[in-house]
Amino acid sequence: MAAVVAATSLVLWRALRRERGLGSDRDRATYSTLHTASQAAFHLRAGLTPDGARKASKPLRVLLGTPALAIVVGDAVLAWDGRGSSHRSSALSDAAATLRTGRTVPLGPHREGHFEETLRYCVSAPLVQDELVVGAIVAYAWVESAGLVRAVEEVASFVSTQLDLGELDRSRARAMEAEVRALRAQISPHFVYNALSAIASFVRTDPERARELILEFADYTRYSFRRQGDFTTMADELRSIDRYLSLERARFGDRLVVSVTVAPEVLAVAIPFLCLQPLVENAVQHGLAGKPGPGTLTIVAQDVGPDCLISIEDDGLGMDPTELRRTLTGEAGTEGIGLANVDERMRRLYGDAYGLVVETAPEAGTKVSLRIPKYRAGVHAT
Question: Minimal CA–CA distance to 369: which of 298, 294, 291?
């Protein structure tokens, strides 16, 4: 009796554990479908490349539950997965009507003898990117089925959505690269000239100081023109800012006072490349350079819950609020391009809540504040 009770308890325990851990059959089926779809999506984000199509074809075929599937683009069969691979060239004629009309086309049993007896039925559905038919999915089956037509249409729609999302990602990446190039181009020839002039002034009077400034200038330009990655660490960005300020202090001498306070916890946080440096340069060039007497630049980076809170403040000339609005909307020409550029990038990356907050008035200095999430999926420094 004790053995029976123990065995029954063991069976119940296993059943309950299975139910809690894996869920119902419906839950497992849903998870399996989503997992398969995500596998296909990963390979489709790079576009309809031969390698991406080949890797995506198997999970797409599994989604449809068909014995064979082909992906056709133009006059090429990019991928074939499943049975009958020796007949993959047949997919070209099977997809021809879809590529020509942009419609789903079922081809029925009249195709007997076309190739394998068991794959006489197929459905071809269009792949659309930016409202243009760029290819077709051809799914092969044993028997004619209205359900398969609908399923192939849905899978083709899913693939088309992934292609559009992939193009959107690439467009955003191109836009960000263009914005970074604009920031690099903003490096003022006047700054370069003034920095080199300041270095030259030390060559005879203080050769060691001149040597240090040359190294600072080299490291500053190397960082500003680096090509890898859209993100860097807070520590690296601040290090480049320190090099820039060393060059400016050599020019301004005691007229430029700098105060930097940074919480150690935020040094390793990934931030958009060149998101702080343009703000510091803007403060020096447009806020402090034209101010009579000494000016103070204050940089503060705090650890505030899920975000870093960063402020860059100067007690320089300040700006008229109307002019500030024109600067942030890009109406002020090239002056202030760094401010507008950083604001646009922050909003695109993190949302409007993460745009720049600027406090300024004529002769009252300027304070620029921004928040950066400490953790964000897919974001890492390189």
Answer: 298
CA atoms of 234 and 261, how far apart (whole Å):
13
Tokens of 304: 């505030």
Cα separations (Å) of 306 from 271, 303, 352, 373, 378?
Answer: 14, 8, 17, 6, 16
Q: Which residue has the tokens 């081809």?
A: 107
Domain 186-373: CATH superfamily is: Histidine kinase-like ATPase, C-terminal domain (3.30.565.10)
22-167 — its CATH code?
A: 3.30.450.40
149 contacts 139 by C-beta, under 8 angstroms:
no
Determine if residue 54 is left, alpha or beta; phi over 0 gives left, psi from -120 to 50 gives alpha, anything else beta.
alpha
Beta bridge mates, 256: 295
Report the distance separating Cα 36 and Cα 24, nearest Å. Answer: 18
Q: Which residues of 147-181 are buried (b: 16+ CB within 10 A; e: fewer)?
A: ebbebbbebbebbbebbeebeeeeeeeeebeebbe
Domains of the chain, residue spans: 22-167, 186-373
Quick one: which of 338, 349, 248, 263 has its CA closest to 297? 248
pLDDT truncated to tens, each residue of the chain (382 aa)?
Answer: 444 334 434 443 444 444 445 566 666 666 666 667 677 777 777 777 888 888 888 888 888 888 899 999 888 899 898 887 777 888 888 899 999 999 988 887 645 444 455 577 888 998 888 788 888 989 998 877 788 888 888 888 888 888 777 776 666 656 656 555 555 555 556 677 777 888 888 888 888 888 888 888 888 888 877 766 678 999 999 999 999 999 998 888 889 999 999 999 999 999 988 889 889 988 998 889 888 889 999 999 999 999 999 999 999 988 888 888 877 776 655 455 678 888 888 888 888 899 999 999 988 899 999 999 998 876 777 6
Q: For residue 340, count CB atoms less than 10 angstroms from its CB and return exposed for 0-12, middle for 13-18, buried for 19 or more.
A: buried
pTM score of the predicted model = 0.55
DSSP states of 268-317:
T-EEETTSSHHHHHHIIIIIITTSSS-EEEEEEEEEETTEEEEEEEE-S-
> What crossing angle do the helices spanning 234-252 and 189-205 adopt, rounded to 10°?
60
